[in-house]
Amino acid sequence: MKNAIKHIQSTTINFLIEKIGKMTDHREANELLTSLTGINTFFRNQEDFLTLLELLKPNFMICEGVDRREYGDFQTPYKLTDSICSYLDSEGISPDVIIEPTFGKGSFLISALKYFPKLKKIYGVEIYESYYWAAKFAIVELFIKQPDLNKPRILLYLNDLFKFEFKEIEGTIEKYNVLVLGNPPWVTSSKLSSLNSKNLPKKTNIKSLSGLDAITGKGNFDISESIILMMLNSFSKYKGNIAMLAKNSVIKNLIHHLPTTSCKINDVIALKINAKEYFNASVEASLFKCSCGPNKLSLTCKVSSLISPNSIENEFGWVGDKFVSDVALYEKNKKYDGNSPYIWRQGVKHDRSKIMELRQIDGNCFNGFRRELNIEKDLIYGLVKSSDLSSPVITKPRKYVIITQNRIGEDTIYLADKFPKLYQYLTENKNFFDQRKSCIYKNKPPFSIFGIGDYSFKPYKVAISGLYKRSTFSLIVPESEKPIMLDDTCYFLGFDNLSESIFVWAILNSERVQQLLATLTFLDAKRPYTKDILMRISTYKVAKDMTYNEIVNQIKSLDEKMLVNITEDKWKVFLGKMNKRNSETKQLSLFEIMTNQPSSFLTLAEK
Predict the structure, then answer these.
(1) Residue 599, pLDDT score
(2) What residues does each domain of the chain span?
(3) Is 460 helix (H, G, I), strand (E, B) or coil?
(4) How far is CA 375 from CA 315, 357, 426, in A?
(5) What does the DSSP assignment read for 93-148?
């Protein structure tokens, strides 16, 4: 309240002084404000009331701060909330009840009061007390200016959303048309943890992830995703609609997660907004809107914009058991969506670039601190990063990396005997390694790296950046007979011979694969290309449909020294090998289906 009252208009201050300034009991003040605004309990107790009376005195000046990041604090401007409520009204949505799980300073509440004249109740929850009071004062100001507006019963709660009992609300809305409205926090669980925030949901594995997926990147999630799922689980069974702002990545995750829930929704659409204009945020975001009620189920989402909602640009979601980014285009290319006969790998992860990544100048090595190193070069390998994968063929790396292990978990004590200079260098910088926060390094040998195995040392590789929008693949060949490594932002396949790597490179860059990828990837995602997506490319099916002449046309830009490795006979041998791999893949997939257990896919597929 102390911070909120400083931002309300002088006319409202004068009104409050005139109407309640001489009152002595909060219950009397509540009756007056309920008749004026519909707010059920403006003052929760006598202490709230006396605090306001003190703050109405002209000599108060108190400042209260908050870390904007902790609350995912992108307060929604009235221009946007008015546009959203106007759009919903134009769609014939006329709710009896509005539920806003994180109402902030109340901009959605104000717009809803203006655009939905049949409202009977508003329920709102907010964790931050300053915003809780700011919203109440904003409602008072609205009704001072427009006293003839419909006054629904307004129940606002100062509470932690993740501890709030929505079941109490559910019991009162069965006969009503419900609209869940709002803008949940745009912040991730890992960011809140780094801020030591208490504004977190109970830590459960909401996506049923297993193993490393649950403790690394895939285990991180947006708080808004958890909140919208909570709203869907609580209210999608009632007649009405849900309309909530969210990052596009969150909306994609929601649709992807739908088959695992009991939510019944239909008419799902994502209406793009200009997040830079409204929130000064460099992120792709939309209004997620759907209709709810019994017997309704849709597993796809149309894409449009709030400015032109009737112009459908795209539709993504589930086609059978496949999740795709473009439903219409997928139907034309789904033939090649299957199982990769190869295992896609992620590159090396070390989280200490200034120590582990080097540059070579005139044969001398320099680390990220520009310090020249006198170390053995046996464990120094060329390194390719995402930004390097714009070239179709890479023969010389831009940077180099120290590789301390041949496999994950390998003891690194051997470094002291075999590479004493390198060991001394790493030991001198041990404090940097000790500061690594990722749990994947916990209880591992000193100077451990991740994403390393036999596959890392394959001489020939075909790779793609996980971070960039380009879907082209690069061919990587050894430097001075030494394999080149990739970093963990890249995905790659490793090969023992050049001809096989060239054939796969040509297949992956073919129009067939490029069109398939266009239907599977979400280019506004932080990492458009993932292992899950790449493992869906049935290289075998594409190869069967390609002629040798098509392959030759695809690789004609290669160096002549490489082209001599390509003949029609080798293409036939390659097809035979692919057929064998494909059979093994089918057998393993069948094993997984029958036993419901992950198979040892790596063992057979890597032969």
Answers:
(1) 44
(2) 78-158+177-232+243-254, 345-605
(3) strand
(4) 55, 13, 10
(5) ---SEEEES--TTSHHHHHHHHH-TT--EEEEEES-HHHHHHHHHHHHHHHHH-TT
Pairing of β 300-305 and β 265-273: parallel
Length of the chain: 607
In this structure, what are the phi and psi dihedrals at residue 594, rounded to the nearest 5 degrees?
-70, -35
Run of H or E including 383: strand 380-384
Q: Which residues contact 529 (CB under 8 A, 6 or more apart)?
A: 464, 465, 466, 471, 491, 517, 521
pLDDT at residue number 414: 97
Q: Tens digits of per-residue pLDDT, 30-88?
A: 898 899 899 999 989 888 888 888 787 654 433 344 444 444 456 899 999 999 999 99
Here the tokens at position 528 are 């458009």
**Degrees, nearest 5: CA angle 171-172-174:** 80
Q: What percent of the chain has pLDDT over 90?
A: 70
How confident is residue 218, by pLDDT bands cut at 50, 70 and 90?
low
Whether residue 384 contacts residue 486, with contact meaning beta carbons closer than 8 Å, is answered with yes
Question: Residues 6 or more apart from 588 whose CB is under 8 A from it?
Answer: 599, 600, 601, 604, 605
pLDDT at 68: 42
**597 class by beta-carbon count within 10 Å (0-12 exposed, 13-18 middle, 19+ buried):** exposed
Asked if 403 and 379 touch (Cβ cutoff 8 Å), the reply is yes
Cα gap 141→120, rounded to integer Å: 20
Q: How large is the average pLDDT for residues 257-275? A: 93
**Interval 379-433: pLDDT, tens:** 999 999 999 999 999 999 999 999 999 999 999 999 999 999 999 999 999 999 9
Q: What span, in angstroms and rounded, lies between the C-alpha atoms of 564 and 570?
A: 11
Q: How is 147-193 classified by DSSP, letter by letter?
A: TTS---EEEEEES-GGG--THHHHTT-TTS-EEEEE-----BHHHHH
3-state SS, residue 265 = strand
What is the CATH code of the structural domain delimited by 78-158+177-232+243-254?
A: 3.40.50
Cβ distance 522 to 530 under 8 Å? no
What are the φ/ψ torsions at residue 384 (nearest 5 degrees)? -115, 130
Q: Provide the 8-state DSSP code for 258.
A: G
Q: What is the pLDDT of residues 115-170, one digit of tens each?
A: 999 999 999 999 999 999 999 999 999 999 999 999 999 999 999 999 998 888 88
Judging by DSSP bridges, how do beta strands 474-476 and 393-394 pair with one another? parallel
Phi-psi sector, 599: left (phi>0), alpha (psi -120 to 50), beta:
beta
Tokens of 93: 């949505």
3-state secondary structure 398-426: CEEEECCCCCCCCCCCHHHHHCHHHHHHH
